[in-house]
Amino acid sequence: MTNRILSAALALIFFAPYPIHATKENRILSGKIVSTVPIRKSIVIHLFRLDVSASGKVSLLTKSDLLGGKQPFRTLQIQKPGDFSFRGLPPGVYSVIAFEDTDANGNITFDPPEAFGWYNRLDGSRFSAIDLRGGNNKEPVRIVLRRPVPFPH
Questions:
Q1: How many CB atoms lie within 10 A of CB 99?
Q2: Can you give the pLDDT at residue 24?
Q3: How far apart (Å, rounded) are the C-alpha atoms in residues 116 and 89?
Q4: What's the rounded Cα separation, in Å, for the pair 63 and 56?
Q5: CB-neighbour burial class of residue 77 (10 A; exposed 0-12, middle 13-18, buried 19+)
Q6: Alpha-helical segments (H) within the chain
Q7: Is residue 80 a contact partner of residue 130, using CB atoms and an 8 Å limit?
Q8: Strand 83-89 to 93-100 pairing
Q9: CA 152 to CA 13: how far, in whole Å?
Q10: Is 149 exposed, middle or buried (0-12, 13-18, 19+ CB in 10 A)?
Q11: Are 129 and 121 in contact (CB under 8 A)?
């Protein structure tokens, strides 16, 4: 009898469906990193949370933000180009950049230049915002890593 009760209790613990409770931090932002150049070191992916004014205007990421003016909201590291996901995000507007961390310092370096890229809706355009206020990203977040060519001296 005791074994039956113990077995039933264990079955309830391990096999009972667990309810999924919605929380304020339940957004997922997923995407894929591809590269036009060989990648030999790990890839760092920075997620930035963008500021939104009271009127709804989004302040897009700038070059000075990337060069230390703004801290990433979250960071991931992957070993090679491929899929990535940021989970448990609060509703908000985000921007994503990625780079090959050749010097293992966690920051973009331009001397020597590291392969880098950012999410943009149109090739060759500025950083694009990803709006997660209404749910998870609905369009694929694709980031292409390219190695910048230094200007000649």
A1: 25
A2: 59
A3: 24
A4: 22
A5: exposed
A6: 2-15, 63-64
A7: no
A8: unpaired
A9: 66
A10: exposed
A11: no
Instruction: Give the pair of three-digit tokens for residue 57.
Output: 């205007």
CA distance 10 to 6: 6
> Exposed, middle or buried by CB within 10 Å (0-12, 13-18, 19+), for 117?
buried
- Residue 77 confidence (pLDDT): 97
Could you tell me whether strands 74-78 and 43-49 are parallel, antiparallel, or unpaired per DSSP bridges? antiparallel
CA atoms within 13 A on the CB side of 78: 16
Q: What is the pLDDT of residue 153?
A: 64
Nearest to 52 by CA among 87, 91, 89: 91
* Confidence (pLDDT) at 125: 67
**pLDDT at site 93:** 95
pLDDT single digits (tens) 70-84: 899 999 999 999 999
Q: Which residues of the chain have pLDDT under 50?
A: 3-22
Specify the pairing of strand 141-145 against strand 27-35.
Answer: parallel
Question: Residues in the chain, how many?
Answer: 153
